[in-house]
Give the backbone structure.
Amino acid sequence: MKTNEKIFLKRLGSAIRMEREKLNISQEALGLEIGISKNQVGRIERAEHATSITILYKLAIFFQIEIKSFFD
């Protein structure tokens, strides 16, 4: 993976973690809400997995934010 891609994934993962922590919910609870495993949530937050736009959409809906917020 290229450096720029890794930086992007780290920022995205941090944004997702920040939103999850605002709600004070676990990775497991978040995964259950959007239909993925807690392990996948962790991999996304740690920038180990490039997630799909569908998962980002589900996250935005759950967090009640606009999807573009992940990219600011």
The CA atoms of residues 21 and 27 lie 9 Å apart. The radius of gyration is 11 Å.
